[in-house]
Amino acid sequence: MKTHRSPFSRLATLAVLVAVALLPVLFVSCSDDDNPVTPPYEFADLEQQTHAKINAYRVSKGLAALAWSDIIVVQARLHSSNMAAGTTLFGHDGFSDRAAAIAKQIAWSSAGENVAMLSNRSDAATAAVNAWLASPGHKKNIEGDFNTTAIGIAKSSDGTLYFTQIFIKTK
User: Fold this and answer.
1) Sign of the Cα pseudo-torsion (44, 48, 77, 102, in order)
2) Distances (CA, A) of 82 to 11, 35, 147, 165
3) How far apart are CA 42 and CA 47, in angstroms?
4) Which of 87, 128, 146, 168 could bridge across to 116 with cysteines, CB 3.0–4.6 Å?
5) Residues forming beta bridges with residue 151, ordered by sequence position
6) Residue 42 vs residues 34, 49, 80: alpha-carbon distances, Å
7) 163 beta partners
8) pLDDT tens digit string along 152-170?
């Protein structure tokens, strides 16, 4: 049996198909605040404040300021978000994967990473930088032979802030 559909029926079917096809796009665009790689990002200002403090410290020691990388920030934000969500332990697990992901877009000869975990405070950028500078290993990265960086920050449900700074020496 052959059936004929009215033009309205065809239009309704097309509208449903378009809506279903656009659903992932609408979901992503509506949930940008939860997406650590898509601007606007909740902690972008705090990331830039931390970056500025790192560079001020480096310059005070006669070292070159580090350039910011929008490529590196993707990996830094993802790691901080994973730590904040508890899907990754606090630390450097998976650093080689993050470095390899960056290497697909930026040729580099060396890489390093600092992480910090802080209670939510009004001057978290200063607290994170001071904590890193008080630790010989973290300070070595801050003063290291790198030229590019980014800092990703995320907050856990209990308000704890997680910082990831990735350092790169580009080729």
Assistant:
1) positive
2) 43, 12, 26, 14
3) 10
4) 128
5) 165
6) 9, 13, 13
7) 116, 153
8) 999 999 999 999 999 999 9
Residue that the structure tokens 């097309």 belong to: 14
Q: What is the DSSP letter of 32?
A: G
Tell the residue number behind the tokens 């978290």, with chain if given. 124
Q: Which two tokens stand for residue 81?
A: 């978000």
Q: 91 vs 13, 95, 163, CA distance in Å?
A: 50, 9, 10
Structure tokens at 66: 């580090």
Residue among 159, 169, 133 at smallest CA distance from 43: 159
Q: Which two tokens stand for residue 1?
A: 């049996």
**Tokens 């500078």, located at residue:** 133
Point out the residues of the chain with pLDDT beneath 50: 1-39
Give the whole-angstrom CA distance, residue 97 versus residue 77: 14
Q: Which stretch of DSSP H or E encloses residue 15? A: helix 7-30
Distances 72 to 24, 80, 130 between C-alpha atoms, Å = 26, 13, 22
The reply to whether the predicted model has a pTM over 0.90 is no
Q: How many residues does the chain have?
A: 171
Residue 50's pLDDT is what? 98
